[in-house]
Backbone:
C-alpha cells in the first residue's frame, strides 16, 4: 500500500489550523476550528483506507483495479461527518445563547479557576474550597464548622440543634433590643421631667 503524500500533507495542514482556531477565545472561531479539524481527520481516514479500488460490492469493477476499496474508512468518515454536524449545531446554539446574555462572542474566564490559579502553592489552606473552620494543623473539622454531625448521630438531630441555636440567637437579640428600648424610654422620660422643672 502506498500513501498519498499530498493528501497526508493537506490533512496535517487542516488539523494544525483547526487546533490553532480551537485555542482562540471566540466561540465562532472555536466552531470553525472544530469543522476544519474534523475535515483534516476525515482526510487522514481517507488516506488510511489505501489506494482507490473497485467498489466493495461483489462482481462490480471499476477500471483495471485488482483490489476492492476499504469500506470501513468510508463508513467512519460518514459517521464523523454526522457527529461533526451535531457538534457544530450544539456550538452554534451555545454561541447564540451566550450572545443573548453577554452580547459578546468570547469565552470568559471562570471565576473559580482564577481563584485556584491565584492560591499559594505552599499554603494548601488558601484554596477556595476549604472550610475556614477546619483546624489548620490537623485539617479535621471543628465545632465551629457548619452544623454537621461528625459522631454518627442523625442528621435531623443536627438540624434541630441548628434551628434551636438560631431561635436562641433571635430571642437574645430581641431581649437586648427590648432592654435598649426600655432604657431609651426611661432616659427620655427623665429628660422630659427635667425640662418640666
Residues:
Amino acid at each position: 500500500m502506498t500513501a498519498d503524500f499530498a493528501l497526508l500533507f493537506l490533512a496535517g495542514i487542516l488539523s494544525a489550523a483547526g487546533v490553532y482556531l480551537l485555542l482562540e477565545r471566540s466561540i465562532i472561531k472555536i466552531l470553525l476550528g472544530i469543522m476544519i479539524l474534523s475535515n483534516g481527520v476525515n482526510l487522514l481516514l481517507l488516506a488510511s483506507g489505501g489506494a482507490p479500488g473497485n467498489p466493495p460490492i461483489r462482481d462490480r469493477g471499476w477500471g483495471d483495479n485488482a483490489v476492492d476499496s476499504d469500506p470501513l474508512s468510508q463508513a467512519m468518515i460518514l459517521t464523523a461527518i454526522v457527529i461533526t454536524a451535531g457538534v457544530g449545531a450544539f456550538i452554534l446554539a451555545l454561541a447564540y445563547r451566550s450572545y443573548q446574555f453577554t452580547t459578546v462572542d468570547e469565552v470568559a474566564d471562570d471565576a473559580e479557576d482564577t481563584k485556584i490559579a491565584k492560591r499559594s502553592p505552599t499554603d494548601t489552606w488558601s484554596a477556595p474550597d476549604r472550610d475556614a473552620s477546619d483546624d489548620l494543623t490537623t485539617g479535621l473539622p471543628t465545632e465551629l464548622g457548619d452544623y454537621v454531625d461528625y459522631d454518627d448521630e442523625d442528621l435531623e438531630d443536627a438540624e434541630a440543634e441548628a434551628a434551636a441555636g438560631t431561635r436562641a440567637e433571635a430571642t437574645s437579640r430581641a431581649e437586648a433590643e427590648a432592654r435598649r428600648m426600655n432604657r431609651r424610654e426611661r432616659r427620655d422620660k427623665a429628660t422630659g421631667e427635667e425640662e418640666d422643672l
Notes: The chain has a mean pLDDT of 80. The CA atoms of residues 131 and 139 lie 10 Å apart. The two ends are 119 Å apart (CA to CA). Helices lie at 5-22, 27-48, 71-102, 111-118, 155-196.
